[in-house]
Amino acid sequence: MTDTRYIGSHRARPDAADKVTGKVRYIHDISKPGMLYGKIKRSEHAHARIVSIDTTRAERLPGVCAVITGYNTPPVAVGFLRDNSALKRDKVRHFRDEVAAVAAIDPDIAAAAIDLIEVEYEPLPCVFDPLEALEPGAPLVHEQDARGTSVTSNLVPMECGHDSGDVEAARRAAAHIVEGDYSVPLIQQSCLGTAGCIAEFDGNDNLTITAKTQIPFLAQRDFNRALGEMGLRGRNSRVIVPALGGAFGSGLDTHCYEFIAILLAHRTGRPVKILVDREEEFASLSPRQSARVKIAQGCDAQGRLLFRDIEVVQDNGAYASWGATFPTVMLLPVTSLYRVPNVRFTSCIVYTNNTYCQAMRGYGNPEVTWAIDSNLDDLADAAGIDALEMRRINCNEPGEVTPMQMKISTCGLRECLDKTAEHLDWSEKRGAGSGPGQTRTGVGMASLIHVGGSGRIYRSDASGLTVKLDDFGNVNVFYGGVEMGQGLHAVLTMAVADSFGVLPEHVHINQTDTATCPWDVGTHASRGAFMSCNAAILAAEKVRARIFSACEELFPAEIDRALTKLRRDDPELGVPDFDFAAASRADNFELRDSEVFLRDGPDVPWARVPLGRILRAMHFRRDGEMLTESVFYDPPSDLPDWKKGIGNMSACYTYGVQGVEVEVDEDTGEVAIKKLVSALDVGKVLNPPALRGQVYGGIAQGIGYALYEEVKTEQGRILNPNFTDYKLPTACEMDFPIVLEFIETDEPVGPFGAKGAGEPGLVPTAPAIANAIQDAIGVRIRDLPITPEKILAALAKRG
Amino acid sequence: MSATQSEYLRPKDLRAALEHKAATPDARFIAGGTDLLVHARRPGATLPQSLISLRAVAELNEVTVVGATLRIGAAAPLTEVARHPVIAERLPALVASIDVLGSRQIRNVATLGGNLCNASPAADTAPPLLVHDARVELQHVGGRREVPLVEFFRGPGETAIEANEVMTAVLLELPPPNAEAAFERKGRVRMDLAIAIVAGLFELDGSVVRRARVAAGAVAPLPLRLTEVEERLTGSELDDDVIAEARRLTTEAISPISDLRSSADYRRHLTGVFVERMLHGVAGSSVTGRPGA
Ligand SMILES: Cc1cc2nc3c(=O)[nH]c(=O)nc-3n(C[C@H](O)[C@H](O)[C@H](O)COP(=O)(O)OP(=O)(O)OC[C@H]3O[C@@H](n4cnc5c(N)ncnc54)[C@H](O)[C@@H]3O)c2cc1C
Q1: Contacts of A729 in chain B (CB under 8 A)
Q2: Closest CA in chain A for residue B276
Q3: Ligand 1 near B166 CB (within 6 A)
Q4: What share of chain B is helix, strand, coil (3-state, %, to 5)?
């Protein structure tokens, strides 16, 4: 690798010009000749038997090309546990359940046809509370599992737990113990770009689907399986990912609407587009799950944590998505945030007749960090220890092996704590709280650990990358990960430029397409930069070796040619006495900024050969070659044993701290953030503006989670499926100074020393705010979001 | 929203607008469209068959002052209303209510006429206009009438306007220079419909309230004048007891509901806090002698 001149620098991202000029093509902008519009008829009940579906009136509507139901199409199983189906037969388990679908020549006709479909239901008893769903005699959401075996409870068959050391003995030995019941609500990913897809079949029944997904290759697997169920075994699906306007986890599953588009496209023989509008996105895609977290932590008289005991109950909703693997990521902070020798974790995920849930940024981590870091402040109080000191006492250290057997290589947590305290004026402000009039100020902080070297939750955690160099010196990159707004293409461009030694203008990252890009497990777990840049470095080694080896023969000739030409123009040209042929050994070449030169050769312009010339010479010589290389990077980590909650799931770990100063109005219950500090150990800053963007965005989402956001439901129905009623923070709420500190711990397995940083921004925000509120007004809020009404209620109780 | 073709008319003068309306009773006026289009996109809703835009009607876009009477064209964009020098100087509560309405982009197209005709209980400009005893001017092909704003609101989404009428202007008498105006409101986030709004206008004689006008929004089926509170305040000194009583009377006069934005209890509490804050502010400034007082 050459020195890094682009990594760490400020450069406009390659997709910036198209984005700001509106040229970029999202799924909404794409259409195909002859394309039809699909629309879905959803259930009118949270739980009901389907008695009959009458589609005759819809079929007769002019412009309608197909009306499908679960009764006139082959059953297509959907979901992580395959407990869902594209179109429901027999019964519906939530309002979003798909009972029929239409393809028509325009969206209005499709919508009108949907209204003409008549479905008769026989309502069934419902269950919406996960604890009630666990009681004997509760209505069963699923009477059978995906294999057809009868089940007797609403428990989702997904076991994940942990038990290390001796929690009971530690409980007896503890000088201080604090318990608490915490909860987090359903929230929406709220992507600016809503979801959609276009499915089309060629004459050989192979499928091409343009889809908003974060997992093109797992989606290909799911779609191929669906083709098999449709009687098209052996046919292939090609998944193409358009520009995405955000995903935040919403693209980590394949969705019923995609399978319905496939069914409709096959039925009609025409491309079918299904777009999900904002209301539908709320009502029919999967939000972050709500959860209840019961926690107890105990410490000795000196404040050293002795144990942590956590029980999580998660409302899964009616079907299992990848979101059912949330507890696997919860294990990270549960076992390994701060040093704690005895840890017990139990999780239970419960089917209900609520909307089914999915992943969102942080994937279980913010849900449980909310409880851990709030409860830690209370424990510090009980022990009479300052909350910062408490965190210092229990701080993780490099070289540590945690109860989960996670191997902590680099860890900047201590520095993050110190920086945060410094910027917050912790020693001055903590406990000092009084503001003007009815306001009280306070400061609080919370920490985070997250996977920094991808997270192995699937059989393979690898990423392939192919490069194709051409006659003009371009490096075309084919990478299976997804640019969804986070800046993957920007950082990968820099990494290729630096590791290959080419100009970033010559690097072209191609659209993600399963037909051209090598396999990748998906863009999640903050892994995009870590994986793609590591893959780029591997590819660079191969490509450079081939270029330098070819140069042994080609380089002296190129210099001769260049010199001959120069001498023709300038007979006086001074040429140093240097034997290019003798110095042209593979190990003496260097490639930088798209020019090949000799490490110990003269530093003159004519002794530098443009990469394009070398590539053309390689191409057009006898037995010519095109320079293409593929690599497959698999990070050094283990697939944990989830039942035991043991395993080094990531190649390295990212740590961070956020600190907040708040002002609480005791009259109105309003919380105003006065300052926020984020200190994050990212290993190495690869792309400064993009990293700042990730953290700012995370903070905004964290503030939304802390103070505003909640999908409200009543008997399973979503009451606020739009941005009038569901409130996100906007720029107006972000009107306080934010101090960002990045700690560079130079992670050995990280590309250029970097660790993943995509998700962490929102993980500690809510507990940091709650801790600051507690410092300001002496009340502990345990249920998100922290609304003014909850503050007033807590104040009334405090007296 | 159904994409079935809607007719869109853009008359240049009032007469043409009124004639279109008389000829097509189902037609709807559209000013900024920031309520109308949002409603039309609700599930199950459709765009009206015929839309008559008021944006090019010059008479409806002007703000004029004749003597002490201010006339705000019903279709003038809110940004321009707030920027008008007389309004900026003399009607701080109205300006404050415009400053918090939606976003800059919304305020650049939204209008006073639209805010009032939409008749949301949470319309931000209603309480400050109520305390200024504003009147609205309504016209149809055959004539013109003025309706006091308090009588204009009939219920959520319901007003005194007749099917053939357009609102042409909002009229009000400029307050005396020593009058003290106040505006308080809160949403869940800053760009949100209000969960409670309070506006007030006070004329003081030393520390005695000579005239008090108080209005509230988002806490009853219509924007309200709080006459019981006004009566209690008139002739009183603004001491802590009077303020506490005004707060109590306020919470009794309103009838908030619980919805997705807030519980009724919190709305009631917040309205009380706002009235109290407003009165403390007025009491404070009468003592310190703010310029103009
Ligand atoms: C994102 C967003 C945020 C918003 N925030 C706020 C807020 O904070 N506070 C608030 O109060 N409102 C808010 N609104 C609502 C809206 O912007 C205001 O009510 C605005 O003043 C409406 O004015 P308009 O000109 O856009 O009305 P339009 O949508 O054009 O019209 C509204 C209604 O009034 C009728 N109408 C309009 N003008 C006349 C007239 N001259 N004569 C007769 N009938 C007429 C129309 O036919 C229609 O029925 C918000 C809206 C959006 C989209």
Answers
A1: 189
A2: A667
A3: yes
A4: 35, 25, 35
Q: Give me the pLDDT at residue B42, please.
A: 82
Structure tokens, A750: 């990280």
State which ligand 1 atom lies nearest to the alpha carbon of B191.
8
CB–CB contacts below 8 A, A to B: 43
- Least Cα separation, residue A187 to chain B (angstroms): 15
pLDDT band at A573 (very low <50, low <70, confident <90, very high): confident
Please count the other Cβ atoms lying within 10 Å of the Cβ belonging to residue A335.
Answer: 23
Ligand 1 atom at shortest distance from the alpha carbon of B28: 47
Q: How far is the CA of B109 from the centre of ligand 1 (A)?
A: 9
State residue B289's pLDDT score. 37
Quote the CA–CA distance of A195 and A242 in Å, as a whole number: 11
- Walk me through the domains of chain A, giving residue ranges and CATH numbers: 16-22+462-633 (3.30.365.10), 31-124+195-276 (3.90.1170.50), 291-457+639-798 (3.30.365.10)
Assigned token pair, B92: 């701080």
Structure tokens at B87: 């309004």
- CA of B126 from ligand 1 middle (Å) equals 12
Q: Token match 């395959």: residue? A: A82
Task: Note the pLDDT of residue A799.
Answer: 82
Question: Ligand 1 centroid vs B88 CA: distance in angstroms?
Answer: 21
CB A219 within 8 A of CB A241: no
Distance CA B265, CA B287 (A): 33
Distance between CA atoms of residues A261 and B115, nearest Å: 42
Shortest CA distance from B271: residue in chain A: A668
The helix (H) or strand (E) run that includes residue B173 is strand B166-173
User: Considering only CB atoms, which chain A residues are within 8 Å of B270?
Assistant: 668
Q: How far is CA B85 from CA B80, B93, B169, in A?
A: 10, 14, 18
Closest by CA to A336, choosing from A345, A349, A347, is A345
Report residue A449 as tokens: 């650990």
Q: Quick one: angle between helices B240-253 and B264-288, nearest 10?
A: 150
Cβ-Cβ contacts under 8 Å for A379 (sequence gap 6 or more): A176, A177, A178, A297, A298, A299, A390
- List all residues 6 or more positions away from A22 whose beta carbon is below 8 Å from its beta carbon: none
What does the alpha-carbon distance between residue A238 and residue A208 come to, in Å, rounded to a whole number?
A: 5
At residue B31, the 3 state secondary structure works out as: coil
8 Å CB contact between A449 and A658: no
Q: Is B39 helix (H, G, I), strand (E, B) or coil?
A: helix
Q: Give this complex's ipTM.
A: 0.93
Task: In whole angstroms, give the CA distance from residue A106 to residue A104.
Answer: 5
For A146, the 3-state DSSP assignment is: coil
Token pair recorded at residue A14 = 């390659």
- pLDDT single digits (tens) B56-81: 999 999 999 999 999 999 999 999 99
Q: Give the pair of three-digit tokens for residue A32.
A: 């195909």
Q: Which pLDDT score is estimated for A52?
A: 98
- Min Cα–Cα distance to chain A from B270, Å: 6
Which amino acid makes up residue A680?
Answer: L
> How far does the centroid of ligand 1 lie from the alpha carbon of residue B260, in Å?
21
B46 touches chain A (CB under 8 A): no
